[in-house]
Specification:
The chain is α/β, with parallel strands linked by helices and 356 residues long. Helices cover 42% and strands 16% of the residues. It has a seven-stranded parallel sheet with strand order 3-2-1-4-5-6-10, with helices on both faces. A three-stranded mixed sheet has the order 7-9-11. A two-stranded parallel sheet has the order 8-12.
Length: 356
């Protein structure tokens, strides 16, 4: 079986690539990544020489390139993870999100449709987000039947991509599955997102900026549990269906920050409470969704998926990885990253935006 995984050098993508390469040595796994700021081949150094793994550098916006890639490899399936994902960046400039998340997805759909015409057993697996559903109140959880109500340009671009995938299924008979997941965390995540950003800033004794009162709530899912869900969907999921994937671990941002601070003080052998003093409340961002929560009943009951890593255990694993891999952290937070950080957030230590 030949499988294309887009965005495989990124955070979630690298964990999916590693799982498939290690678990299915008889498959041919092709990792397509443009290696933009969040893509890093260091994430896959441990499997780079495996015979079943191939890396291809390329951009999903290049229609001719994508078409040729499908013709060359004759893929049996596609797991689509390549995307612009950072909400704050989408608020400043939505153009890249429109291009990559919408046009890039259409390019892949066209290439798959042209190659897979009348073929059986193929699958376009679209990896999406719970943010397409908008914001929840104090109660309730998102399900596969929740209406799409995106409130940020990022969420709107992912919603549009989901709609195009579904439309290609209805119009052209393209075999697809869409998954909508909650916030992921774990090793190798680029430090623009909340948990790795806060770890990096705690290590460097810099401000931990939280929007508003810090009471925005997210449902957290350990990345390896998400990779396991993607594995199940690819092999056993029902074509033409949507599946919600959630950790059932709701945390307010402030409570999460405090938990991470206490854990970091202990790991770094610092005075208790020293990291928590770095927490800084900043002006809220536009269109900020109050609460996300996923109901994963469908994937649990139909496919037998369940989370294996509890939040506290996953958070400690994540912190340990970043502390043990400071060279990786330093490499992605130097050079071009410094220019990117400053262009987005101003002087370090006095950020006016939360990242994550």
């Amino acid at each position: 079986m030949k499988i294309l995984i887009t965005g495989g050098a990124g955070f979630i993508g690298s964990h999916v690539v590693r799982r498939f390469v290690n678990k299915y040595p008889g498959y041919q796994i092709v990792n397509l990544d443009a290696l933009t700021y969040a893509g890093n081949l260091q994430n896959l150094a441990d499997i780079a020489q495996k015979p079943s793994y191939t890396f291809v550098k390329g951009n999903i916006l290049d229609r001719a390139f994508i078409s040729d890639l499908f013709k060359t490899y004759q893929f049996d399936g596609l797991i689509h993870l390549a995307a612009e994902t950072h909400v704050d960046r989408s608020i400043k400039d939505s153009t890249a999100f429109l291009q990559t998340n919408v046009q890039g997805t259409i390019n892949l759909l066209d290439a798959a449709g042209n190659t897979w015409r009348k073929a059986k057993g193929k699958l376009f697996l679209q990896i999406s987000t719970d943010e397409v559903f908008g914001s929840l109140g104090e109660i309730g959880r998102f399900t596969e039947n929740s209406p799409y109500r995106p409130n940020s340009p990022y969420a709107a671009s992912k919603a549009a991509a989901d709609h195009f995938v579904r439309s290609y299924g209805a119009t052209y008979g393209l075999p697809y599955i869409i998954s909508n997941c909650s916030n992921n965390f774990g090793p190798n995540q680029f430090p623009e997102k909340l948990i790795p950003l806060f770890i990096n800033n705690i290590v460097n004794r810099e401000a931990l900026p939280l929007y508003g009162d810090g009471n925005f709530t997210r449902d957290w899912l350990y990345v390896e549990d998400h990779a396991a869900a993607i594995d199940l969907l690819f092999h056993k999921g029902s074509r033409g269906q949507t599946y919600c994937i959630g950790g059932e671990n709701e945390w307010k941002n402030l409570d999460l920050a405090r938990q991470l601070c206490h854990l970091s003080d202990r790991k770094l052998k610092r005075e208790p409470g020293s990291a928590e003093k770095l927490i800084t409340f900043v002006k809220d961002r536009p269109g900020h969704d109050k609460r996300y929560a996923i109901d994963p009943t469908k994937i649990k009951e139909e496919l037998g998926w369940k989370t294996e890593i509890g939040f506290e255990q996953g958070l400690e694993r994540t912190l340990d990885w970043y502390l043990e891999n400071r060279q990786w952290l330093e490499s992605v937070t130097s050079g071009d990253y410094q220019k990117y950080y400053l262009s987005m957030y101003g002087k370090k230590g006095t950020n006016q935006n939360q990242i994550g």
